[in-house]
Protein backbone atom coordinates (compact mmCIF):
# COMPACT_ATOMS: atom_id res chain seq x y z
CA UNK A 1 0.00 0.00 0.00
CA UNK A 2 1.50 3.35 -1.07
CA UNK A 3 0.65 6.50 0.94
CA UNK A 4 0.43 9.70 -1.07
CA UNK A 5 -0.69 13.20 -0.13
CA UNK A 6 -4.37 13.20 -0.89
CA UNK A 7 -5.28 9.55 -1.55
CA UNK A 8 -4.45 5.83 -1.41
CA UNK A 9 -3.58 3.82 -4.49
CA UNK A 10 -4.72 0.19 -4.69
CA UNK A 11 -3.21 -1.09 -7.88
CA UNK A 12 -4.32 1.29 -10.61
CA UNK A 13 -7.54 2.51 -8.91
CA UNK A 14 -7.30 5.97 -7.31
CA UNK A 15 -9.62 7.03 -4.53
CA UNK A 16 -10.51 10.69 -4.97
CA UNK A 17 -9.07 13.08 -2.39
CA UNK A 18 -12.33 15.05 -2.32
CA UNK A 19 -14.10 12.02 -0.79
CA UNK A 20 -11.30 11.19 1.65
CA UNK A 21 -9.73 14.43 2.96
CA UNK A 22 -6.14 14.68 4.05
CA UNK A 23 -5.51 13.59 7.62
CA UNK A 24 -2.57 13.32 9.98
CA UNK A 25 -2.13 9.95 11.60
CA UNK A 26 0.29 8.84 14.31
CA UNK A 27 1.80 5.41 13.53
CA UNK A 28 2.18 2.82 16.27
CA UNK A 29 5.96 3.15 16.59
CA UNK A 30 7.99 6.26 15.83
CA UNK A 31 11.04 4.30 14.58
CA UNK A 32 9.45 2.00 12.01
CA UNK A 33 6.82 2.57 9.34
CA UNK A 34 5.70 -0.49 7.32
CA UNK A 35 4.36 0.17 3.90
CA UNK A 36 2.89 -2.84 2.07
CA UNK A 37 2.47 -2.89 -1.68
CA UNK A 38 -0.48 -5.20 -2.21
CA UNK A 39 -0.87 -5.16 -5.97
CA UNK A 40 -3.06 -7.89 -7.49
CA UNK A 41 -0.97 -10.80 -8.75
CA UNK A 42 2.23 -9.52 -7.18
CA UNK A 43 2.94 -11.12 -3.80
CA UNK A 44 5.72 -8.78 -2.90
CA UNK A 45 7.13 -8.75 0.64
CA UNK A 46 6.35 -5.69 2.78
CA UNK A 47 8.71 -2.79 2.33
CA UNK A 48 10.08 -1.51 5.62
CA UNK A 49 11.63 1.91 6.08
CA UNK A 50 13.31 2.60 9.39
CA UNK A 51 13.53 5.85 11.38
CA UNK A 52 10.55 7.29 9.53
CA UNK A 53 8.56 10.09 11.17
CA UNK A 54 5.49 9.09 13.18
CA UNK A 55 3.28 11.67 11.44
CA UNK A 56 2.78 11.97 7.73
CA UNK A 57 2.78 15.70 7.02
CA UNK A 58 0.75 17.56 4.45
CA UNK A 59 2.54 18.37 1.21
CA UNK A 60 3.47 22.04 1.04
CA UNK A 61 1.89 24.14 -1.65
CA UNK A 62 4.34 24.95 -4.43
CA UNK A 63 4.91 28.39 -5.83
CA UNK A 64 2.65 29.39 -8.65
CA UNK A 65 4.14 28.41 -12.03
CA UNK A 66 6.75 26.14 -10.45
CA UNK A 67 6.59 22.39 -11.19
CA UNK A 68 9.15 19.66 -10.58
CA UNK A 69 7.35 16.75 -12.24
CA UNK A 70 4.74 16.52 -14.96
CA UNK A 71 1.28 17.04 -13.48
CA UNK A 72 -0.99 14.06 -13.01
CA UNK A 73 -4.67 13.82 -12.17
CA UNK A 74 -4.25 12.73 -8.52
CA UNK A 75 -1.66 15.42 -7.69
CA UNK A 76 -3.84 18.05 -9.36
CA UNK A 77 -6.81 17.07 -7.24
CA UNK A 78 -4.70 17.17 -4.06
CA UNK A 79 -3.33 20.65 -4.92
CA UNK A 80 -6.84 21.91 -5.64
CA UNK A 81 -8.00 20.61 -2.28
CA UNK A 82 -5.12 22.31 -0.46
CA UNK A 83 -5.82 25.56 -2.34
CA UNK A 84 -9.48 25.45 -1.38
CA UNK A 85 -8.64 24.78 2.28
CA UNK A 86 -6.16 27.67 2.41
CA UNK A 87 -8.61 30.04 0.70
CA UNK A 88 -11.32 29.09 3.21
CA UNK A 89 -8.88 29.73 6.09
CA UNK A 90 -7.98 33.16 4.68
CA UNK A 91 -11.66 34.08 4.27
CA UNK A 92 -12.40 33.01 7.85
CA UNK A 93 -9.45 35.06 9.17
CA UNK A 94 -10.64 38.14 7.24
CA UNK A 95 -14.16 37.66 8.59
CA UNK A 96 -12.88 37.28 12.17
CA UNK A 97 -10.78 40.45 11.83
CA UNK A 98 -13.82 42.40 10.61
CA UNK A 99 -15.86 41.09 13.54
CA UNK A 100 -13.09 42.03 15.99
CA UNK A 101 -12.89 45.56 14.58
CA UNK A 102 -16.65 45.89 14.84
CA UNK A 103 -16.59 44.65 18.43
CA UNK A 104 -13.86 47.16 19.34
CA UNK A 105 -15.87 50.02 17.85
CA UNK A 106 -19.00 48.86 19.67
CA UNK A 107 -17.10 48.63 22.97
CA UNK A 108 -15.72 52.14 22.50
CA UNK A 109 -19.22 53.47 21.84
CA UNK A 110 -20.53 51.63 24.90
CA UNK A 111 -17.68 53.02 27.02
CA UNK A 112 -18.59 56.56 25.98
CA UNK A 113 -22.26 55.97 26.74
CA UNK A 114 -21.43 54.32 30.09
CA UNK A 115 -19.11 57.19 31.01
CA UNK A 116 -21.84 59.80 30.59
CA UNK A 117 -24.39 57.66 32.41
CA UNK A 118 -22.13 56.92 35.36
CA UNK A 119 -21.26 60.60 35.74
CA UNK A 120 -24.94 61.54 35.88
CA UNK A 121 -25.74 58.67 38.21
CA UNK A 122 -23.02 59.59 40.69
CA UNK A 123 -24.12 63.20 40.64
CA UNK A 124 -27.74 62.28 41.32
CA UNK A 125 -26.72 59.85 44.05
CA UNK A 126 -24.73 62.55 45.85
CA UNK A 127 -27.67 64.94 45.62
CA UNK A 128 -29.87 62.34 47.35
CA UNK A 129 -27.30 61.61 50.06
CA UNK A 130 -28.02 63.22 53.40
CA UNK A 131 -27.27 62.62 57.06
CA UNK A 132 -29.73 60.18 58.63
CA UNK A 133 -30.86 58.49 55.39
CA UNK A 134 -30.17 55.03 56.80
CA UNK A 135 -27.52 54.34 54.18
CA UNK A 136 -24.22 56.08 53.48
CA UNK A 137 -25.54 59.06 55.45
CA UNK A 138 -26.01 56.99 58.59
CA UNK A 139 -28.99 57.00 60.93
CA UNK A 140 -32.16 54.89 61.06
CA UNK A 141 -34.60 54.53 58.16
CA UNK A 142 -37.55 52.15 58.57
CA UNK A 143 -39.87 51.13 55.76
CA UNK A 144 -42.95 51.16 58.01
CA UNK A 145 -43.55 47.40 57.93
CA UNK A 146 -44.98 45.43 60.87
CA UNK A 147 -41.62 43.76 61.56
CA UNK A 148 -38.96 46.48 61.12
CA UNK A 149 -39.02 47.72 64.73
CA UNK A 150 -38.47 44.18 65.97
CA UNK A 151 -35.55 43.81 63.54
CA UNK A 152 -34.03 47.07 64.82
CA UNK A 153 -34.38 45.95 68.44
CA UNK A 154 -32.57 42.71 67.63
CA UNK A 155 -29.75 44.63 65.91
CA UNK A 156 -29.32 46.82 68.98
CA UNK A 157 -29.15 43.70 71.18
CA UNK A 158 -26.35 42.32 69.01
CA UNK A 159 -24.47 45.61 69.27
CA UNK A 160 -24.77 45.53 73.06
CA UNK A 161 -23.38 41.97 73.11
CA UNK A 162 -20.09 43.39 71.76
CA UNK A 163 -19.92 45.86 74.70
CA UNK A 164 -21.08 48.57 72.27
CA UNK A 165 -17.74 48.41 70.49
CA UNK A 166 -19.59 47.56 67.26
CA UNK A 167 -22.27 50.20 67.09
CA UNK A 168 -24.94 50.75 64.45
CA UNK A 169 -23.90 53.55 62.09
CA UNK A 170 -26.84 53.06 59.75
CA UNK A 171 -29.89 50.79 59.76
CA UNK A 172 -32.42 50.50 56.95
CA UNK A 173 -35.30 48.16 56.20
CA UNK A 174 -37.09 47.67 52.88
CA UNK A 175 -40.50 46.28 51.99
CA UNK A 176 -38.84 43.50 49.96
CA UNK A 177 -37.70 41.83 53.23
CA UNK A 178 -34.19 43.32 53.21
CA UNK A 179 -32.22 44.65 56.16
CA UNK A 180 -29.07 46.72 55.57
CA UNK A 181 -26.82 47.47 58.52
CA UNK A 182 -23.62 49.52 58.60
CA UNK A 183 -21.54 49.14 61.73
CA UNK A 184 -18.64 51.18 63.08
CA UNK A 185 -15.97 50.16 65.55
CA UNK A 186 -15.78 52.66 68.39
CA UNK A 187 -12.37 51.50 69.64
CA UNK A 188 -10.68 52.70 66.44
CA UNK A 189 -10.03 56.36 65.70
CA UNK A 190 -12.14 56.63 62.58
CA UNK A 191 -14.59 53.81 63.32
CA UNK A 192 -13.53 51.40 60.59
CA UNK A 193 -14.42 47.75 61.41
CA UNK A 194 -12.39 44.83 60.13
CA UNK A 195 -13.68 41.96 58.00
CA UNK A 196 -13.67 39.78 61.11
CA UNK A 197 -15.78 42.35 62.95
CA UNK A 198 -18.36 42.42 60.16
CA UNK A 199 -18.44 38.63 59.99
CA UNK A 200 -18.89 38.26 63.76
CA UNK A 201 -21.73 40.79 63.83
CA UNK A 202 -23.41 39.12 60.84
CA UNK A 203 -23.33 35.66 62.43
CA UNK A 204 -24.74 36.93 65.74
CA UNK A 205 -27.48 38.98 64.09
CA UNK A 206 -28.41 36.19 61.68
CA UNK A 207 -28.90 33.81 64.60
CA UNK A 208 -31.30 36.21 66.33
CA UNK A 209 -33.23 36.75 63.10
CA UNK A 210 -33.60 32.99 62.62
CA UNK A 211 -35.01 32.63 66.13
CA UNK A 212 -37.42 35.50 65.53
CA UNK A 213 -38.55 33.95 62.24
CA UNK A 214 -39.29 30.65 64.01
CA UNK A 215 -41.33 32.52 66.65
CA UNK A 216 -43.29 34.39 63.97
CA UNK A 217 -42.07 37.83 65.11
CA UNK A 218 -40.64 38.65 61.69
CA UNK A 219 -41.41 37.20 58.24
CA UNK A 220 -39.52 34.26 56.77
CA UNK A 221 -36.49 34.54 54.43
CA UNK A 222 -35.32 38.01 55.39
CA UNK A 223 -32.18 39.11 53.52
CA UNK A 224 -29.40 40.63 55.63
CA UNK A 225 -26.55 42.87 54.47
CA UNK A 226 -23.86 44.07 56.89
CA UNK A 227 -21.06 46.46 55.90
CA UNK A 228 -18.82 49.29 57.13
CA UNK A 229 -19.77 52.98 56.98
CA UNK A 230 -17.57 53.42 53.90
CA UNK A 231 -14.42 55.36 53.06
CA UNK A 232 -16.35 58.58 52.43
CA UNK A 233 -18.80 58.28 55.29
CA UNK A 234 -21.01 61.17 56.32
CA UNK A 235 -19.79 63.23 59.27
CA UNK A 236 -22.53 63.96 61.79
CA UNK A 237 -22.58 67.62 62.79
CA UNK A 238 -21.56 68.71 65.35
CA UNK A 239 -20.91 65.54 67.40
CA UNK A 240 -18.28 64.07 65.03
CA UNK A 241 -16.34 67.22 64.20
CA UNK A 242 -13.80 66.51 66.92
CA UNK A 243 -13.37 62.92 65.76
CA UNK A 244 -12.65 63.81 62.13
CA UNK A 245 -11.15 67.29 62.48
CA UNK A 246 -7.86 66.20 60.89
CA UNK A 247 -9.49 64.59 57.85
CA UNK A 248 -10.20 66.27 54.51
CA UNK A 249 -13.94 66.68 53.96
CA UNK A 250 -16.35 67.44 51.18
CA UNK A 251 -18.70 70.18 52.38
CA UNK A 252 -21.95 71.39 50.86
CA UNK A 253 -23.30 74.53 52.51
CA UNK A 254 -25.52 77.58 52.07
CA UNK A 255 -24.60 81.22 52.52
CA UNK A 256 -26.83 84.24 52.97
CA UNK A 257 -26.15 87.92 52.45
CA UNK A 258 -27.03 90.80 54.76
CA UNK A 259 -30.11 91.65 52.72
CA UNK A 260 -33.25 90.27 54.32
CA UNK A 261 -34.89 89.27 51.03
CA UNK A 262 -31.79 87.64 49.60
CA UNK A 263 -32.08 84.00 48.53
CA UNK A 264 -29.57 81.65 50.19
CA UNK A 265 -26.80 80.58 47.82
CA UNK A 266 -25.45 77.05 47.85
CA UNK A 267 -21.77 76.24 47.55
CA UNK A 268 -19.52 73.25 47.99
CA UNK A 269 -15.87 72.29 48.02
CA UNK A 270 -13.18 70.01 49.42
CA UNK A 271 -12.22 71.73 52.65
CA UNK A 272 -10.33 71.29 55.92
CA UNK A 273 -11.72 72.13 59.33
CA UNK A 274 -9.81 74.96 60.99
CA UNK A 275 -11.91 75.45 64.12
CA UNK A 276 -15.38 75.06 65.57
CA UNK A 277 -17.26 76.56 68.51
CA UNK A 278 -19.92 74.50 70.23
CA UNK A 279 -21.28 77.52 72.13
CA UNK A 280 -21.66 79.71 69.05
CA UNK A 281 -22.56 76.64 66.98
CA UNK A 282 -20.40 77.63 64.06
CA UNK A 283 -17.21 76.45 62.36
CA UNK A 284 -14.46 77.82 60.15
CA UNK A 285 -13.15 76.08 57.02
CA UNK A 286 -10.17 76.49 54.71
CA UNK A 287 -9.32 75.02 51.30
CA UNK A 288 -7.75 71.56 51.58
CA UNK A 289 -4.38 70.89 49.98
CA UNK A 290 -5.56 68.15 47.59
CA UNK A 291 -5.12 67.56 43.87
CA UNK A 292 -8.57 68.77 42.84
CA UNK A 293 -7.89 72.15 44.48
CA UNK A 294 -4.27 72.46 43.31
CA UNK A 295 -5.34 71.98 39.70
CA UNK A 296 -7.10 75.35 39.84
CA UNK A 297 -3.67 77.02 40.14
CA UNK A 298 -2.27 75.09 37.20
CA UNK A 299 -0.96 71.61 36.60
CA UNK A 300 1.86 70.68 38.95
CA UNK A 301 1.57 73.89 40.98
CA UNK A 302 0.79 74.19 44.73
CA UNK A 303 -2.13 76.10 46.21
CA UNK A 304 -2.02 79.79 45.47
CA UNK A 305 -1.71 82.38 48.19
CA UNK A 306 -5.33 83.35 47.69
CA UNK A 307 -6.42 79.74 48.16
CA UNK A 308 -4.32 79.31 51.29
CA UNK A 309 -5.83 82.43 52.87
CA UNK A 310 -9.45 81.71 51.89
CA UNK A 311 -11.81 81.15 54.85
CA UNK A 312 -15.45 80.15 55.24
CA UNK A 313 -17.26 80.77 58.51
CA UNK A 314 -20.64 79.11 58.68
CA UNK A 315 -23.15 78.05 61.34
CA UNK A 316 -23.85 74.37 61.85
CA UNK A 317 -27.36 74.76 60.47
CA UNK A 318 -26.09 75.87 57.07
CA UNK A 319 -24.08 72.68 56.53
CA UNK A 320 -26.21 70.56 54.19
CA UNK A 321 -23.73 67.69 53.78
CA UNK A 322 -20.33 66.94 55.27
CA UNK A 323 -18.56 63.70 54.39
CA UNK A 324 -15.01 62.41 54.37
CA UNK A 325 -13.09 62.92 51.13
CA UNK A 326 -10.67 60.40 49.65
CA UNK A 327 -8.34 60.94 46.70
CA UNK A 328 -8.09 57.17 46.04
Automatic annotation (TrEMBL):
Residues 234-325 form the DUF7912 domain. Keywords: Cytoplasm, Ribosome biogenesis. It holds the Pfam family DUF7912. SUPFAM superfamilies: YhbC-like, N-terminal domain. GO terms for biological process: ribosome biogenesis. It comes from the Eukaryota. PANTHER family: OS04G0438300 PROTEIN, OSJNBA0006B20.18 PROTEIN. This is Ribosome maturation factor RimP N-terminal domain-containing protein. It comes from Urochloa decumbens.
Amino acid sequence: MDLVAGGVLHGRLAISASRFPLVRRSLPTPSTVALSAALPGCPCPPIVRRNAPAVVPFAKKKRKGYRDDPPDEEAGEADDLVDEMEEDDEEEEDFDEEEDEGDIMDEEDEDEDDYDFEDDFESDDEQDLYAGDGGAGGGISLAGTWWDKEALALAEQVSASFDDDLKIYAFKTAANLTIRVRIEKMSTRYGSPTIDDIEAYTIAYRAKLDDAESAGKIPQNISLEVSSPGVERVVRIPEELERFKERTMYVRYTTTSDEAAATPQEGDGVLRLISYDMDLRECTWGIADVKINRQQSGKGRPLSKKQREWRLQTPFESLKLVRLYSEC
